[in-house]
Amino acid sequence: MARLPYLNLSDLSPENQDLLERPINLNRLLVNSPNCRRAGLYLAQFIRYGSRLDSRLRELAIMTVGYLTRAPYEWSHHVILARDFGVSDDDIRDLASFLEGRAHGLDAHAALAVTAAREMTEDIAMSAATFDALHEFLSDEEMVDIVVTIAHYNAMVRVLASFDVEVEDDYLPGLEKFPLPA
What one-character DSSP code corresponds to residue 31? Predict the structure, then answer.
């Protein structure tokens, strides 16, 4: 059970009801502070729709954060959402294999994005070697976007865990098809 209430449209003032356009549990909890949620949505919308970073690489990096932190909410949502951005079931299996040190089919660019996310999740910062390798094919703008994306989702998994936000029934199939390791 979440540590704060999940709010509904009727709980919000008319000027804040747009914050529940997507009434997922994360949004329903964070609207306990409407101004904070509005600020967070601005960055989240940029990451998803405004960044020039390749959407498949972005999703694989985000999923890496969810997988490594064993964050069921983040992982389950992006297992489902990533399909809209070019991530296949094979990519998801390959991501898990890569992160577990097994043979995988990730291409070199995807493997570097995943490595960057792993380093930032486990070691706080991306190594110079990974940064330089990514920068060989990503522009300065894309480098900012991938670092901010990975950092944002590392923050979000901590928010989700601290508030004990529950996975909605619509996203449970993602966890069933691609369960997180124990």
Answer: T
Say which residues have a Cβ less than 8 Å from residue 167's Cβ, sequence separation at least 6: 25, 72, 73, 76, 77, 175
pTM of whole model > 0.85? Answer: yes
Q: Domain limits of the chain? A: 10-50, 53-177
The residue type of 101 is: G
DSSP for 139-161, please give it. -HHHHHHHHHHHHHHHHHHHHHH
In angstroms, the CA 74 to CA 67 distance is: 8
E strand or H helix that includes residue 85: none
Query: Does residue 182 have a pLDDT over 90?
Result: no
Q: Where are the beta strands (DSSP E) in 15-120?
A: none
Dist CA 100 CA 137 (whole Å): 25
Q: Answer whether 68's CB lies under 8 Å from 118's CB.
A: yes
CATH code linked to domain 53-177: 1.20.1290.10
For residues 71 and 79, is the Cβ–Cβ distance under 8 A? no
pLDDT tens digits along 110-145? 999 999 999 999 999 999 999 999 999 999 999 999
